[in-house]
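Researcher: Before we compare anything, I want clean individual predictions. No alignment, no superposition, just each chain on its own. First chain goes here; please echo the sequence and then give the structure tokens.
Model: Echoing the first chain and its structure:
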Amino acid sequence: MAKSYSRRGFLRAAAVGAAGAVLAACQPAVVEKVVKETVVVEVEKAAPPGKKQVRILASSWAIAEVPFDVTAREYNTMQEDAEIILQTTFEGWDTKVIAQINDGTLQWSAAGILTPFLVMKTWTATGMIQPMDTFINSSSQAGADQVLTDMIPTIKEDGSFEGEFYSLAYSFENITFNWRVDYFNAVGATEAPATWDEWLRIALELKKWGADEQIYPTAFAGALWTDVGALICSAMEQPYTAEGLIAWESPEMIEALAFYKKLIAEEELTPPHGSDGWLDAYYSGKVASVQAQSSRGVWGQNAFGSDKVATSPIPTREPGGGVGSVYWGNGFAILNKAPFPQEATDYLVYTMGPQNTWFQKAVIKSGKTPIYNSAYENIIKTDPQMGIYRWMVGMLDDVNRSVPAPRNNYYTIQNTMFQKHRVTFTEVGSTMTPEECAQLILKDTQDEIAKQKL
């Protein structure tokens, strides 16, 4: 099964282009059957008389990566009064869910993937979801009493809003430094760079070493969180303002933008603009390192071997400085006025709870980091077969000192403005200063926010 999921993750990864605004989103999977607007994971069968049909919506990329369909079949064999029916989300699904909530005809009980920095504010403000605390505490499923206590505190905070818990995650992602061990070793670097200065020094060595083969020493994934959003987290203790924006005018952001431009436009150590075509180059062996989501390191291991690629915490401006990295959970929420909220929660606990070691291992093998402390102690640190994932312990340490992204709908706006100005800023020979770039992004962001009503 390990090989099956690794290969599925790798094949999926190979089809993905450069990272866009929605970091957590993945490409749709091939589906089996379309029923109206909804793709059914298994061919839907009528539930036996008296059985509750507990419908759960899930992003197709999540079902492609981890075995929710397998656990649904297992769970259904043990239930006498409930039948879990997994369905993939479809275009406009959230609008339909809200309409059904309002007219009392809601047919689904839970939905995912909830990415808190993207949609927590919207899903709560529109009344689409409800808190899960009561349902978790009322669940009779094994492991239910450990879900919220075993969960990494910062992941619990990420899944909460205004003091209530809304999003039960099956994994988290953070921004990491993914590097070719063999390439770094060739220039005498046996560990990932710990600071920006070390990153620059090694990259300059790699540029000389890989010149004949046209190997890029480093790269970025091309989204706000993977690029300067992660850099500012590595540079300061509070990277967000009281208004819930990135601290664009801070001295640390100016330094981050200056370093970003130095790598890309001044020393030409990356693909054009830092990320153009980086993924194809990565799989062609032409990228020595990339700052991107942690799962990208596992994708590289699948492509080149676990001894050739490593995943490490991102370099920081000063040794041990900053506040970890950008991170987010991949979660499920209970829909407001759900017909079967307790039954849906019970299935999610059965599948995603800390007691389900088999599922936790499947998540780990997909390249996603687990959300429970026990998974690190009982699986990653102790299971010999999971040795290649020991790097995830570093991610645990990293996320423990990180802070959740603000709960608003500003990320997409800021990313849009970042994309608008970063190309000009990172052109070779560009005269735009870091201060000018930051001011343009901030002004355009504030102008757009002024038009928003949510």
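Researcher: Okay. Second chain, same rules.
Model: Second chain and its structure:
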Amino acid sequence: MTETQPAKPRRSMAAFDLPAWGLAAATLAGFAGRWHWLLDLASHFRWYLLLTTLVWFAVTTRRRSRLATACLVIAVGANVWAILPYWLPATGTIATGDRLTIVSLNVLIHNSDKARGMAYLRQRDADVVVLLEVDDAWADAIADLEPLYPYRVVEPRRDPFGIAVLSKLPLNAPRVETLADGSPVVITGLPLGKAGCLLVAAHPLAPISADWSARRDAQLAAMGELAGDERRPVIVAGDLNTTPWGFGFRQLVAPRGLRDSARGRGVQSTWHARHWAPRIPIDHIVVSPEISVGSRTVGPDVGSDHLPIEATLVVP
């Protein structure tokens, strides 16, 4: 009997060690998103992985092995490293140039409370509005905003990938393209800054399967190449169906060095608007380095499953 007594403490310790190993594995899996779409899904929940790891670290004091402690330290360090840029103060000064206020909102194709969304857009009175999941009913609703936004591209669809750009500013050579076998993307020039700037509005496919994940990443990579080839300042806005830590997001920002407008302003989660958890940041406004970000916030609940994002930009 004496020889078998240590087994109980070992079994008890293993019960506390297994979650630590799992948290470390999930954290590291998020960095391997290029290899498999399921691994990439783990990257989207870094904020929750960090909080869970810190809680488990506190709960299991004196009850975990050294290996489990090392796993928890790795999980905390990796998640902090990924998230920290969003909490560090934004650097740089606001450039002089043309000021632009912009709103991006996934209106939700099945949202029957359209008056609520329309009231928000009128009240916000942004210079440019990007709307996602626009069907014929939403196209009819936003037609009432034409006096406020005389320049527009509206591409309604029966599926959740209809898109619209409404603008107080003239649109220069606007077009709708399908990049890399993805969903429609609106590409248009705006008369801002010395040489104008380029706006790319998009709603890539959701990562609900290997095929859709691959097509989303291909579209984000194609948008990144488009930005990299462009000499004008670039703004990319929309529901990108990825968080800033996903593989597809890195594909988007790398070629031009695009910057997430939320950096220095915290993790500004937008989906799911109806639940406090999980709520992750998949709606974005990213800009090329020469564009200054004056403000960037999450808007109120407007009846969609997404919260709107609002930004004030300065194009030099």
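Researcher: What stands out in the second chain?
Model: The first strand starts at residue 98 and ends at 106. Additionally, Residues 2-86 form one domain.
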